[in-house]
Design goal:
3 helices
Length: 82
């Protein structure tokens, strides 16, 4: 099983855990904390999956273009030459 499939499977497992735990949210603070932890873990897994789908060459070109065409001046821009 490749890394993308593993991440998708883990996301599905987190969604199932979240769904089951959502029935017990009002039961205790421990349930609420666990629910919040699961939501965070799911978000992290989704971000990892999103990063796997990105092409690093295209992303570096996008970053370079954004930097080249940035119009507003930042404070750090004043200190580059000094």
């Amino acid at each position: 099983m490749n890394e993308k499939q593993q991440l998708k499977k883990q996301i599905q497992q987190k969604e199932l855990q979240i769904k089951k735990l959502s029935l017990h949210l009002n039961a205790s603070d421990v349930c609420n904390e666990l629910y919040n932890t699961l939501i965070l873990e799911k978000a992290i897994l989704k971000k990892e999956l999103e990063n796997l789908n990105k092409n690093p060459v295209i992303e570096s070109v996008k970053k370079g273009l954004k930097k080249a065409f940035r119009k507003e001046k930042l404070i750090c821009d004043y200190f580059k030459n000094g």
